[in-house]
């Protein structure tokens, strides 16, 4: 058939195709739904899946404050891009913060917050009240009391919305709930929180070491914390460290410095099921980007601009308050490029 009529595909086949697309790349699913009305109608239920609301490996590469009408997202695995116009939402809302592929908006009249998914154009109002319990008698009463310290937004496969704050606490809720549940945890100040397969991985400041918090199921009033690797087996965690999802593998990067100069980087591959770790001196065809607000890995295939098996590190100069990016070849950490 030279000119097949794709709109006549069997109605049960289109959602199956949509399910395969959405599990691989949410942007392809959006393009599928844009073809015609029958395809949109037959993928309504697929649109409600968690994979659709939580697309993987997407990062924002344009500044929403400078170009809200031309937002661009980039997939670190497939290297595809996705464009979005934020400006229609800025009549009623103002942009409060952006995280990876999500926007946190603040209503100009009610001052309430909402979470916007640009892929699905879905806007979820967020509750203001924080539920108190006996274990956290000093918990803040309202989201507004914490919001300025917000450092991470995660959405699980069960559509639980989790907010992480720099003051080492979490709140979570379900769409439609009237309040947040509050919990505290001790985060090692020289580490980050990594969201991976409905789990939060945290290097704690206490004696627990590397722990995981399972968010896959309905979350109880108290966090269920499981020790993955105890602190007495992770002596190198006294250094600055980062957790990175490298194409489905968890890499822990440790940094050593002396007199404000970085001396060495070491990488360890973590096995969460076996609760083991092993030194991993090679990143293959990937490179890792480390920064105070974001860590991610990128496949270097078809990207000659990125040096394979490298660590790109963003740091803050202690004396001048300036930021810079340096690239280190992972094999011997030779400085490849420096920029202020």
TrEMBL record:
What Pfam families does this protein's entry cite?
Answer: Beta-prop_KIB1-4
Q: Which InterPro entries match?
A: KIB1-4_b-propeller (IPR005174)
User: Which residue range or ranges hold the KIB1-4 beta-propeller domain?
Assistant: 73-314
- Give the top-rank taxon of the lineage listed in the UniProt record for this protein: Eukaryota
Q: Can you name this protein?
A: KIB1-4 beta-propeller domain-containing protein
Provide the organism lineage as a comma list.
Answer: Eukaryota, Viridiplantae, Streptophyta, Embryophyta, Tracheophyta
